Amino acid sequence: MDVSRRDFLKITGSTLALGSVGTALSPEEATAQELRIKNAKQTTTICPYCSVGCSILVHTIDGKIVNTEGDPDSPINEGTLCPKGASLFQMANNPARLTKPLYRAPGALEWREVEWEWAFDQIARKVKDTRDRTFKLTSKSKIKEKKPDGTEVDVEKEFVVNRTDGIAHVGSAAMDNEECYLMQKLLRSWGLVYIEHQARI
Ligand code: SF4
């Protein structure tokens, strides 16, 4: 009998759904799992946790996520997920999940819930203020210069840099190539030089 990878994963239950990491499902459990996603809409997503970029199947019913599991068609993870990726279901269905930004004012002991618009305005204001305060048009650096007799000397020169050292940006494994490209353009236009991405950390 030909058994596809997808069939194999379904039979063994090794897709790690339902948090059953490392354990095969019993036939009853496998049937329950089948029923659980029977009429669900299936879409794919990329795990947001690390730069491996595993593909995940997401099953939804009436817009609510009822199941997530490794995508067997992905050449990256071939249906498998590490414990973090296998727990993705709980990221969406979790009463403890934060759905609004929290803000703790300087000196305050308590965090308070704020509106997204207010948070966006604050971030924009702080980026603008920090950039204005720290922007450098030029910077001095030492370079080697050759003298007429062929020897080299260190010379301090001023170069146009148009940059800010006051802001850094760390990207996300959930961003795709196009998003990274756009983010690079934005950050470089602000004059940032400290630009990192999780894939390099
Ligand atoms: S499932 Fe694990 S290895 Fe794969 S991207 Fe997510 S965190 Fe990384």
Structure description:
The strands form three sheets. The protein has a three-stranded antiparallel β-sheet. It is of the alpha+beta class and 201 residues long. A hairpin with a 2-residue loop joins strand 2 (55-61) and strand 3. Helices cover 30% and strands 30% of the residues. The structure holds iron/sulfur cluster. Iron/sulfur cluster binds at residues 47, 49-50, 52-54, 77, 81-82, 84-85.
| Global shape | elongated
Rg measurement, Å: 25 Å
Q: Give the oligomer, counting copies of the same chain as homo and different chains as hetero.
A: single chain
Structural class designation: alpha+beta
Helix proportion: 25-40%
β-strand amount: 25-35%
Number of helical segments with 4 or more residues: 6
Number of strands: 8
Order of helix and strand elements from N to C terminus: HHEEEHHEEHEEHE
Which distinct ligands sit in these coordinates? iron/sulfur cluster
Q: Largest sheet, if any?
A: 3 strands, antiparallel
Give unreliable regions as ranges: 12-22
* Average pLDDT reading: 87
- Separation of the first and last Cα atoms: 45 Å
Spatial ordering of strands, largest sheet: 1-2-3
What descriptors fit this protein?
201 residues, alpha+beta, 3-stranded antiparallel β-sheet, 3-stranded mixed β-sheet, 8 strands, binds iron/sulfur cluster
Helix and strand topology:
Elements: H1 5-12, H2 27-36, E1 41-46, E2 55-61, E3 64-70, H3 83-86, H4 88-92, E4 102-103, E5 112-113, H5 116-134, E6 135-146, E7 152-170, H6 177-190, E8 192-196
Parallel strand pairs: 7-8
Antiparallel strand pairs: 1-2, 2-3, 4-5, 6-7
Bound molecules: iron/sulfur cluster.
